[in-house]
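Workshop exercise sheet. Pairs work together: one partner reads the sequence aloud, the other fills in the structure field after running the prediction. Swap roles for the next sheet.
Pair: D.N. / O.F.
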Amino acid sequence: MHTVIFGAGAVGGYFGGKLARAGFPVTFLVRKRRFEQLKNRGLIISSFHGDFTINPHLVVESKEIENPELVILALKNYHLEEALPQLEVLISNGATILPLLNGVQHMDTLTDRFGEENILGGVCYIESTLNEEGNIVQTSPMHDIVFGSLREGQSEFTSKIVNMLKKSELNVLQTDNIISEMWKKFILLTTLSGITSATRQPIGVARNDLVTRALLVDFIHEIYQIAITHKVPLPEDTVERIIKKVEDLPPAMTSSMHRDLEKGLPIEVESLQGYVLELANKHEIQIPVSRAIYSLLHPFLNGTPQLQ
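Structure field:
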């Protein structure tokens, strides 16, 4: 299966690198600056599961790609809009999109424009970042992909994806309840990123402080209530399961939002905490914790603010 990795950052670069290393045909669709960086140095991955380097097949325009079958979309949410024309070309040439973006809001954007038949649902669990040289550093056992179809009739195609990911030594789970799985991840990620970014500390700090831990629990409850009101099919024990996941995280674990904040980069606050506020306003639900976290992070939306 010819896979296009749209974005060779910390997430897409890692998964694409694993696929290419296993011998599958992979094309990396990247921006010009990343193209030059990877062309000159190769894709260098330092991983909990073993270090490796590949010489990736790189393009900067989707029209250069022949016979794309699967597109793993691994961009920041704030880059999605500008990526839509490139995605349109890939879909017109036969590709199906597997988005691994943070959050859930992007699914409406993709399905409204391209139709459910061309989009899969997906989430990933991975702790990875780019270092100053542009190399990928993956630092925990997690390198998991959970995905599924939005409609029936794609079982043969999705089985091929499962087989490919397993042969690439990645953890993969195919599910018939992908929207539920995406929302579970959304609640976990939105609260984890919000609390680690607001405190400027890894999760262990918030977890070990009784006051901040109580705030985190309230944060989880707020987003769960919004999801239920929004008619997301979540099990009744969702909050307890997410709290258990937070408790089981390594104390030094943080979020990509926290890392981006420390680097002075733009953060995905609008597509995570901001989307929570959007739904809360729609359903007229009071969410004081979510609103406070969003307000604290909003000045850093476009990176470190410049004082005038």
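Discussion prompt: The chain has twelve helices and ten strands. What would you look at next?
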